[in-house]
Amino acid sequence: MEGEPALASLKIGIIGLGKVGEALVSGLLKAGKASPETLYLCEIDEERKRVLREAYGVTFVEAREAARKSDLLIVAVQPRNVGPVVSEVGRFLPQRGILVSTAAGVSLNYIDKYLEREDVQLFRVMPNINMMVGEAAVALASSGRVSESALKTVIDVFSSVGRVFLVEEYFMDAVTGLSGSGPAYVYLVIEALAEGGVKAGLPWELSLQLAAQTVLGSGKMVLEKRMHPAELRRLVETPGGTTIQGIMELEEGRVRAAFMRAVEKAARRAREILMD
Question: Tell me: the pLDDT tens digits for 164-187?
């Protein structure tokens, strides 16, 4: 909608304060994009509420109040709960309000069936667990009835926990298989590298830190140097050297194909369980 408030004064509601909801609260507060007074949080678990009050100085409201008072409402509940929550709070959203779902495998069409309002601007995001440290890959798709200013507002909010990528919704299953599940693949790589270091004689903790930093720096090289990974790999390899010997072992083990199949099968599973 035109004339959305500046982000610092934007009233943001979040229903569901699990990992995603808490990461958003933390990221928004750290970035100065929200204050405890501009957040309207809803969580049913009393222990979670106690922990979050102590950690962030926030307060909690009922779901309907969060919807009524928010310029932008984020539904960060489990997929099976999205329909009931949207059905409960949808009618309390302001005209031309913004509704964002973070649930994996829940389509915009499915949400729309429960929302039953044409005047609400609807978005779907697919973050990943790295939002807990402000480095998520966040895929963002929208319905056909959103304004440019609403889109900018949602991007600004989610950029507090990582990097936002605009995608068509039909890419979301592939996104789930790649960046949604991807951190687990990378953790497996880090674990394997660290164990390789131990096998080569390094202490575990040192080996783990070296492996994690190597992965972190390698990702940063791809993003900042804007070079193809194969080009960067060739910068490390030398004729007859150590790296090319290791690469040969990985290629013989079909590691590249295994990662490709992992993404493909995870994406296929995302399509199978899609709530549409």
Answer: 999 999 999 999 999 999 999 999
